[in-house]
């Protein structure tokens, strides 16, 4: 996820590569350094955060405590942005200096192609400038919305993890096309563009998805036969339960 954000941020022009230091214990130096002139790479988190104004943490929730403990002495007066699922603002505040402002963000991987959506929530000591900064950083990679912290687990279950559910839908649609005789490549193209087009219809017309579904569904036609199958097999119930399961897992990660 860190790489998706990094590449989206640089390519959208939100930040130039020569202002960024990437720290990762497993660095793929050649790849990023070759691609983005001036970007600095290190495996030393402590070194990386020393002279900067903004620190963005993109490690797994399970290693966050160790990473924070290692860098906490360099976080005074800095803006800390974290994209870790589940971890509350309070869980960081236990470790970082009081003067450190924290913004918790839940992005998603389509940020890589500037079609992401990120939700964020900020600590009380975050300034208007901090909010502006995070918005300008993330707006280059897609939509951005501010939410109350108690909604972050639900956001994680929906838009954070959601791209995976939709990739499964696209893969399954393509399999269906292949089953009915379409070549794989054509089938995948038809599937992906259908998902993209349907999403655009919801966003651009503002119509209820049920109403848009009805527009496709001719009486006695092909679509209603498929809708009957999807209802029998529990597509909508499965999606609702999937979002719930992921949101509950997000909550568990804070324990
Ligand atoms: N993958 C996704 O779609 C999303 C992930 N997130 C959050 O992003 C974070 C990263 O998740 P992924 O990108 O999926 O995991 P990942 O395993 O692909 O990336 C984590 C990176 O952290 C590095 N790393 C591990 N320990 C480190 C340490 N001590 N110091 C410096 N670097 C270290 C790893 O080498 C790796 O490159 C998680 O907190 C996750 O909850 C948030 C939204 C979406
Ligand atoms: O699977 C995960 O835990 C991360 C958080 C949201 C998307 N991926």
From TrEMBL:
SUPFAM superfamilies recorded: 6-phosphogluconate dehydrogenase C-terminal domain-like, NAD(P)-binding Rossmann-fold domains
Binding site for NADPH: 45
Ranges for domain Pyrroline-5-carboxylate reductase dimerisation: 149-253
Gene Ontology molecular function: any one: pyrroline-5-carboxylate reductase activity
Biological or metabolic pathway of the protein: Amino-acid biosynthesis; L-proline biosynthesis; L-proline from L-glutamate 5-semialdehyde: step 1/1
Alphabetical GO biological process terms: L-proline biosynthetic process
Compartmental location: Cytoplasm
GO cellular component entries: cytoplasm
UniProt keyword terms in alphabetical order: Amino-acid biosynthesis, Cytoplasm, NADP, Oxidoreductase, Proline biosynthesis
Binding residues annotated for NADP(+), in chain numbering: 58-61
Keyword NADP appears in the UniProt entry: yes
EC number: 1.5.1.2
Domain of life (superkingdom): Bacteria
Record-stated family: Belongs to the pyrroline-5-carboxylate reductase family.
Summary of the function given for this chain in its UniProt record: Catalyzes the reduction of 1-pyrroline-5-carboxylate (PCA) to L-proline.
Protein name as it appears in the record: Pyrroline-5-carboxylate reductase
Taxonomic source organism: Iocasia fonsfrigidae
